[in-house]
Please model this.
Amino acid sequence: MKDMQKSAEEVGNGKVVLVDADVELKKEIGLMAAIALIVGSMIGSGIFISPKVILQRTGSVGLSLVIWGGCGLLALVGGLCYLELGTMLPLSGGDYSYLHEAYGKNTKKHKTFGNIPAFLGPIPSFLFAWTLTFVMKPSALAIMSMSFATYALAPFYPDCGIPDVVLKLTAAAVILVVSGVNSYSVKYAVRVQSFFTYAKVIALIIIIVGGIVNLANGKTEYLVNGFEKFDDEIETSFSSIALAIYSGMWAYDGWNNLNLATEELKHPRHLVIAVLVGVPFVTILYILTNIAYFTVMSPEEVLASDAVAVTWADAMLGVMAWCIPIFVAASVFGAANGSVFTAGRISHVAARNGRMPELLSFIHARRYTPSPAIILNGFLGLLMIIPSNIEGLIDFFSFTGWMFYASTMTALIVMRWTRPNFKRPIKVPIVLPILVFIIAIYLLFAPIVENPQIEYLFAVMFVLAGLLMYTPFVYYSVHFDASGEYSA
Model:
């Protein structure tokens, strides 16, 4: 997986010339960094805010805890499926690489399922790269940076709202910092990720310890009858449960992020260990944190809170309550850093295969980072903090993630037949990808059935609009040459 580079070198007369050299992403992610990337990407603002939404959809404390545990189990099952794919195809780019291998090749050596026509084969992988590069990753970065700004600035504006200009300038600064760090050095990026992972785990441990103290003191009134409805007006249906799972999986988002940077792992087994350690660890933290919330807050108080963790801190920590908003801000910052790290790998690998503009495949000549891809993600993230309500944007595009999860599960199943001779260090029972596929399809359509809105159609139309780029730039290979200190 090497790229040919025109790298800059100085010669005796002081001039700069271009020489050919082999440049590739370096293997700089060790085991602890890999675990930090999984844990740090998963723990964002969701666990501090999402309990309200899940409780509202389920109608009882007990069922909400079941949803949190079930979402963790689903993330682990999905992670096992991605382990088979990641160890079979140790390529960065995650879903893009798997869809490209399953459907994008049609040669005598590598057959696609049903001999897909040459025009159609690369479409699934391209649409994945298109959607994540230009919408999902930048909008997620924008939301996380705005969330960081909200929590970090809250102590400075205790009695009034944060001015919109200050909020957005702070969010823009976050985007510039995390993009700059990830462009400058992989080592620095993973160190930042590790540091903030420790910070967010400490925040959850503080809440969990508080919950244990409350349980020891007998504060279980909201847990002992947990499966009783606290509000008869809340109706629980298959659609509402699906939407609760939908919100829960948003809090678990990031369980497959390490597959996006597989080539940079120091050893392939680090992928396996990181997933098998990281996902269960986060699941346990999430369940215990939710239990801790309900030792202090009633279901009605949870529903009335805009930030459950902050409300819990106000009731439990007294004068030290200020530390939780700071920890939440650190948590979101770490998640933003992880998002930028993985976002750059998607468009880089897609461009390397000729599915994106050539410039995005370039690697910095000295720092070995996919800087152009990272800069593009940061630039789009800056644009997306301009609207007043960007949360609505991610709500309508997040469901497309389930479309690609379903597609990736079909890729795993298809390659059992089309790539039978590929080495599979990990081979999951075929029932697991089938189960994830069924759940993904169910969750994909559940929000539309529950609350059909025209915005979902617009989101699908944007995804399909990628075909307008695919036809000239991928199928007919129209491209523009570029040169400089980067490789292509």
Summary: The chain has a mean pLDDT of 83. The first strand starts at residue 3 and ends at 10. The beta strands are 3-10, 16-23.
